[in-house]
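Might you be able to consider the sequence and fold that I enclose below?
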Amino acid sequence: MRVKTVQFRGGYHGVTILPIGDQTHHTHSLDHLDKIKRSTILMEIARSEVMKGYMPASVYTVMSEDLEKLSAIGGRYLSRNDVRNASQSWRQTHQEELRVHEGYKYDHGNGIVRMDGSVSLANMYHRVHSFDPALAYDASLPPGTLRFPLELRAFLEPYLPSKGRHPAVGGLPHVTLTYATSMDSSLSLAPGLQTVLSGPQSKAMTHYLRSRHDAILIGVRTALTDDPALNCRLEGMGGFGGWGWEGQPRPVVIDPNARWSLSEQSKVLQTVHSGKGKAPWIIIGPRSSLDSNRIELLSNYGGKFLGLAESDHNCRFPWEAILKALASEGIKSVMVEGGGTVINDLFRPENAGVINSVVVTIAPTYLGSGGVTVCPARKQDTSGKPQPALRFQNLKWQSLGEDVVMCGKLPSAHKPSSPPSLRFTEPPLHPGTFLSSQPQSNGQHIFQLPLSS
């Protein structure tokens, strides 16, 4: 088979490889030509706008406002990197600060948008109907980079923490519970078996949700089963076209017995090493035993173990204590992603009050019996008559590809219960108190309650 290569040179280099073997005819399709190369007129317009002092991203946004005119000069497939490449040689000798066009602004995570937040109908149609969450074709961004169009974000906004990220009522972080499920409420085919349910569009939505929260929280079983990276791969976030750790949430793993043994091969640490995410905080329980190597490894990557004093006889932490502990570390919003044990525990009547919103992706499939399911315990009224466990309010439904996304909130009548008594009652500690780490002669570290003075 023969292939054809088209190379773009500039500040951002890229190579497009196209198969041309086994073709029975030669094509002069303008759409095909526009897709593999950019016209001289188009590049000259982009370059001249940047030379006026405008940012390439702003130039791209303004040029994309009128899709019909842009297509007429061969710009249907214009990208931001095309504008950067067109102006790169001029920028080598002109380092002054660039600006956005009048009437536009930079919006975190969304790029350059109009001041009023509106988008032209032509541009909206083009972006929504050409929505491809994968950006592997963009040579300037890492493979696996995702995008989630501005037009598809509005339905989520009422269920997300404010961009100022103020703490929720009571000093607890905003909690968004989100997960993907089958039509029979299953998360996976069997315990310990990773099962893919989300389609590409809803997967991109999940990464957008991650960019809007300070932390992602999962249980240790999910960490052991999936070996997750726990980062945000959305275009414009840190490591994916953005600076530093911009938009990258802090991974948090609930691990009462310190079962999760991280290594340098763990995806979450490889993500840190490549500059595409943060190291995890691992919440462990009383008398958890750790060797010095595990503590040092996590610390070297910027993570840490957090010893939490409160737990019940099943080594479960009260959710209010977990959230107060995270709030004391500066976390103002938490996205809880699973797995089944964590989700079902949050839906218990005594815990559901800490949930601010729920975003559930429903895949068009039945996994069948025997899997891990989301199924809160049924309630009963005073006479013993069965009652529904939960019913969501303020609902909104949105289709994404083959999936359907449900957003909702729980009735405000649910209130979190007070934290249970500590397993070690002397001295008494307030919710959110961390345990102290005591090194032992055998190299182990024992986390225990601080002694009274």
In short: The longest strand covers residues 174-181.
